[in-house]
Amino acid sequence: MLFFLSAASAVNRVTSLPLLNSAFNLVSSAYNYTKETHPYLSGVCSVAETVAAVAVGSVVGGAQPILNQLEPQIALVNEYACKGLDQLEENLPFLQQPADKVK
């Protein structure tokens, strides 16, 4: 379980970058609008969401013993990922802007 806490810091940093966060929100809004306005696609999307949720749940549950053994290596990868993010954020300041403000 500690894997998710350590790996989450790099993942959380990436998903909280304003550029990526706003781009995700735009795509999410378009997806939700499509589901709401096209009944046939809504059914297909709902089935796909259910299948994806079950698949992810199965993979995470089955992989937990392996993840526990790899915890030190995963923490090291997370540390390097965070250092890489530090450099990216320093060299690419537009990552701190929402998608609609990047030119």
TrEMBL record:
<dbReference type="GO" id="GO:0019915">
    <property type="term" value="P:lipid storage"/>
</dbReference>
<dbReference type="Pfam" id="PF03036">
    <property type="entry name" value="Perilipin"/>
</dbReference>
<protein>
    <submittedName>
        <fullName>Uncharacterized protein</fullName>
    </submittedName>
</protein>
<dbReference type="InterPro" id="IPR004279">
    <property type="entry name" value="Perilipin"/>
</dbReference>
<keyword id="KW-0551">Lipid droplet</keyword>
<dbReference type="GO" id="GO:0005811">
    <property type="term" value="C:lipid droplet"/>
</dbReference>
<comment type="similarity">
    <text>Belongs to the perilipin family.</text>
</comment>
<dbReference type="GO" id="GO:0010890">
    <property type="term" value="P:positive regulation of triglyceride storage"/>
</dbReference>
<dbReference type="GO" id="GO:0005829">
    <property type="term" value="C:cytosol"/>
</dbReference>
